[in-house]
Amino acid sequence: MKIMGQTPHSTNLRDLLILRANYGDKPLLIIRDRILTFKEADRLSNVVANQLISYGVQKGDVVATFMYNSLEQALVWFGCAKMGAIYAPLNVSLVRDDLAYSLNDTGAKLFILDEELAPAYNAAKPLLTLDPRVFVLGSSASIENKAAECFENLMTGDDKLPEIEIKSTDPMAIVYTGGSTSMPKGVLVSHLYYIGAAIRYAEIAEATENDVHFANSHFFHIGGQQFAITGPLYTGMTGIMEKWFSASRYWDICRKYNVTIVDPIGTMMAVLLRQPPSDLDRKHKVRVGVGVASGQVRGALHQEFERRFGAPMLEVYAMTEVGVLICSERLHDRREGSSGKPHGWADVIVVDQDDNPVPPNTLGQLLLRPQAINTYMIEYVNKPQETLAAWKNLWYHSGDLGYVDEDGYVYFVGREAHWIRRRGENVSAFEVEKALTEHPAITDCAVVGVPSDVGDEDIKAYIQITEGVERPKPLELINWCKEKIAYFKTPRYIEFVDAFPRTMTKNEIARHELRELGIGKAWDATLDEWIKA
After folding, report:
1. What is the pLDDT of residue 412?
2. CA distance 486 to 11
3. Cα angle for residues 31, 33, 35 (degrees, 5° grid)
4. Phi, psi (deg, nearest 5) at residue 379
5. Which is nearest to 527 in space by CA: 475, 466, 463?
6. C-alpha to C-alpha distance for 198 and 175, rounded to whole angstroms
7. How confident is the model at residue 414, as a pLDDT?
8. CA 38, 42, 45 angle in degrees (round to 5)?
9. How high is the pLDDT of residue 505?
C-alpha cells in the first residue's frame, strides 16, 4: 500500500505500536510529568487489550472514556487498537444532558471515567439508554447506585498480543464534533485515517525523531490525538500534554522538555501575548508551530506572536471529518492570510448555493475530496442522512465559507451554518438553544456568536419570555445552562427581546441580523452587570 506515493511505516495503529517498541525506553508520552516509554506503550497496551477481552469487549465494540489527559487514557486507546475495539473519548466539560446524549450515541459496551468526573456521570445516569460496564480511575465508590470497578483491573494481566486481525480500514475511533443545526455528531474514523494524518503532520512540521511536540489540546479532540499521540508515534518523537492550557507555565514547559514543535490555537496565542514581556521570551528551542490560528486570528496578532517568540506559526485548514491538516502552509511556502494549499492530499473547490464551482477569489462554500483513499471519515455514527448530506455530489461539504486564489491557496473566511467558535471549541447554537428553551419561562431564543476580546467568539443568547410569566434573572438562566451543557457552551451575554426578526421565505429567525447587532445592550455574565450600548 502507498499513501501519496509513500509506503507507510504501518497501516494500522496496532502494528505501529509494535514497530515503534524498538525505541525502547525513549519517552513516547509525557503527561503531567509522568512518562510512558515506547516499549511500555506496546507492552501495557497488550495488557489492557487482553483485559478488555476478558470483560466481554469484542472487535467492533465501543469503549468510551470520560477522562482528563493521562497515560491511562492513552493506554485505553492503544489497548483498543490492539484488539479492534472502537475508542470514543468524551469531552470532560460535558455535564448531565450533553454527557448522556453523547454516551448514549456511542453505544458503549464499557465506560471508563476519572473519579473527579463522577458527579457529572451520576447526574447523567437517569438519562442513559445503555448500561455499560463502568471502570473508575480513582475510587469506584464515587459511582452512585451502580457497581463500578477499579481501573487498575484493566492494567494487570497477560501482556501477549491478542491474535485478532486488524485491517487499515477497520474503525478505530469516534471523535465528536460540534453540530451546526443538530446535536454533536460522532465521526467514525479508521486506523488509516490516523496514519494519513500522521504523514501530513511529519511533512508540515518537517518532523523527525529528534523533535518534541507540546500539544495544547485533549484526547477528545482530533488535534490533541494527532499532535500529542499519533504524530509522535509515527515519527518516533515525544509528545507532551498537560491537564489544561496554562499561559503562565507555557514557555516554562517548553524549556523544561526542550520542545521544538507547538500548536497554540488563535485564542491561546492572544492570551500568551498578554503575558508580561520577558528576557526569556526567545529562550526556548521551539522552531515551528503547526495548526495555530486556523482562521481565528489574522494579521497583526499572528505576526506579533512570531516576532516576539521567534518561531514561525503555520496556518492550516482542517476539520475532524477529513483528517487534520488537510490544507497547510509549509515552512518554504507561505502566503499571508491563507491556510496554505492541500499539497496533493485533497481536491478543494469553492461552490455557490447550488454546488456550481465559482471562479478564483470568489466567496463560496469550501468542498473537499480526498486523494488518499480511506483517510477521511467513515460516517457519522447513527446519522446516515447527515452522512449522505455531507457528501452530496460526492464532495464533502464543509459548511465553511472561503475562497481559493488563482495559485491554489485556500482562504477560510467564516462558518456558513450556526456554528460558534469559542475558546477553541466548536459550539452548536442549536444545542445551546435546546437547553435554554427547556426553561419554563422561555418561549423562544436564538444564540449567535459575537466578537470576543481574546479571539474566536463569545456566545450571546437572545431570549423571548412567555407572556404573563415573570422574567427570570440572567444569572438564573446561566446556571440553568451550566446544569445541562458544558461550561464553554454557556452564554456570556443575554438580551431579552419581545420578538425576533424573521426571514421572508421560511419565517425562520434571521440570525444574521442578530449577529450584526453585536454585544449590544446585553447582560454580561463575566461582569455580572448590564452593558450600556
Report:
1. 84
2. 36
3. 70
4. -170, 170
5. 475
6. 16
7. 66
8. 130
9. 46
CA distances from 42 to 32, 150, 154, 175, 323 (A): 20, 22, 15, 23, 25
Q: What is the structure's pLDDT at 180?
A: 46
* Grid coordinates belonging to 30: 509525557
Cell of 175: 471523535
Cβ contact 47:157 at 8 Å: yes
**DSSP letter string, 435-484:** HHHTSTTEEEEEEEEEE-BTBSEEEEEEEEEPTTSPPPPHHHHHHHHHHH
Going by C-alpha positions, the residue among 527, 517, 526, 475 that lies closest to residue 497 is 517
Look at residue 507 in the predicted model and tell me its pLDDT: 58
pLDDT at 415 (0 to 100): 65
pLDDT one-digit tens code per residue, 429-458: 877 888 898 898 988 899 999 988 877 889
The C-alpha atoms of residue 378 and residue 392 are separated, in whole angstroms, by 15
Give the bridge partners for 365, in sequence order: 351, 401
Judged by average pLDDT, the poorest of 219-223, 301-305, 380-384, 401-405 is 301-305
DSSP letter for 236, please. Answer: T
Bridge partners (DSSP) of residue 457 are 451
How is residue 98 written as a grid cell? 450533553
Q: Could you give the count of Cα atoms lying within 13 Å of 212 in the half-sphere of its Cβ?
A: 19
DSSP 354: T
**Which of the residue ranges 151-160, 410-419, 451-460, 513-522 has the most confident prediction, judged by mean pLDDT?**
151-160
Set of cell numbers at residue 166: 486488524
Q: State which H helix or E strand residue 529 sits in.
A: strand 529-530
Overall size of the chain counted in residues: 533
SS3 string of 132-201?
A: CEEEEECCHHHCCCCCCEEHHHHCCCCCCCCCCCCCCCCEEEEEEECCCCCCCEEEEEEHHHHHHHHHHH
pLDDT tens digits for range 484-504: 998 899 999 999 999 888 754
Q: Which residues, 6+ apart, have CB-to-CB distance to 420 below 8 Å?
A: 426, 427, 428, 429, 447, 448, 449, 457, 459
Question: pTM (2 decimals)?
Answer: 0.85
CA distance 207 to 212: 9
